[in-house]
Amino acid sequence: MKTKALLLGAIAGMAMAPAAFAERGSDGTVSILYWQAPSILNPFLSGGTKDVESSSIIIEPLARYDEAGTLTPWLVDEIPTVENGGVSEDLKSITWKITPGILWSDGTPFTANDVKFTADYCMHPEGGCAQVTKFEGVTSIEVVDDLTVKVTFAEPTPFPYGPFVGGESPIIQAAQFKDCMGAKAPECTQQNFNPIGTGPFVVDEFKPNDVITLSANPNFRHPDKPAFAKVLFKGGGDATAAGRAVMETGEFDYAWNLQLAPDVIANMEKGGKGVPVAGFGPLMERMELNHTNPDPALGPDERSVVRPHPFLDDPAVYKAMSLAIDRPLLVEVGYGQAGKVTCNYVPAPEAFNSTSMKCDVQDIEGAKAMLEEAGYKDTNGDGIRETPAGVPMKILYQTSTNAVRQDFQALIKQWWSEIGIDAELRNVNASVFFGGDPGSPDTFQKFYADVEMYANTFNGTDPQAYLGNLLCDKAPSPASQWQGENISRFCNEEYDALYKELTKTAGAEARSEIGKRLNDLAIENGAMIPLVHRGRLSAHANSLGGVILNVWDSELWNVADWYRIKE
User: What is the DSSP string of 253-267?
Assistant: First the structure.
């Protein structure tokens, strides 16, 4: 029952004891294990959660979300609002006032110039920024004075908290990145691997897809934090080894994203060295459907052009593929109480969770009938249907290497074979798949397959920027160094127009209704096939205090408050 309760609830971990810190660096080394190894420490050049979170302990945003999803000042004195004068009455600008005295880790002042530079860096027309949706609608960034920056939008923007908010939109130092603008951004290896930050730790050495060693930032704004002098941030391996390393052997203090079956977690907890922590945010396991022609004979430019797939753009096809899936069984096999069936792109918060679609009942016969009626028939008796144009319904189905995902692949391949669709399975090392390397053919952004499966989430409790990821112009391409969050290259004029309406809409109820309509448009028009609303599940050592799991921002959001519990 104990493990079930942990999996069910938003477990906050151990509350920090009063006067936990004696002095900065007094608690030695904390060891963190992300089995999806970080590839870069610049979240503007990677959409991978592993890269966003590892960089979040080095570079920080102006504001972020706490464990309850509340917008919280971070490098500023307060959150700008209309009431306090920080947001203009016409809702076309927001002004941030930076907390005085903040220093970069190199000892130089953190100023509004750095904030403006960060926006210019991400919005550069010749560059590719993985987080450019955060700056949707921004027309200018103005440095009012050294500690004040004003963001202006083209239209009234009731939710102006996209730029510089959350772990996905931190501030980078202008002096360090000044020669890394536009197309030069991915070439700046030293800067991307060793960013100067305002966070609690600084990089000593970064070995991509392997290990990061860090030291306490001597110029961190809180004089008694962090308690740890060093961080050993290890990447690689798999979720099973990561869980054992914390809960059974005690080799590590924190293990992220334990995507494992519930009975496996329960057995690990019996090791007595650590405990799982879990909570439900908007994390959702899905299948992206490729809206381009994935023919490997085509060049990169052709394979990134939004055009009809030979058959995946047909509603009869993607709805039949969805109908053939037994989602309750996937939840049972993969996540137990840490998973829920979902039909939605945005399964949380509850205000944005659409109830207009049902997908919790598998219907193989119904899926067959749907395909048959649409003209997809097995004309040669080989068990594989052909399109009306005679193209065999064969797909390449890829995902990252992970035991749960490979179980899902095997089950889904079987169900699709029963309705006459043949799937070739492929899995890619997670560090490569989510790495964002523009030179690699194996990243999820390039999507050199027909279908790919992974999970994604967003910072905060308002999904505006997340919903903006499906805009036509957010598709990764060679021109953007393959950055962009519209992975399926979904493009729908009605969706784009409705999204613009969302950006101009105030009022929680009205925003909720538009958000649900956007969700339904995306699913009904084949942007993806949702599978499982996943809980975030990690583990920490019994001796590690201060851990508060946050499903609305980086899991490492409060690493400055972690400390070693003294026996």
Answer: SEE------HHHHHH
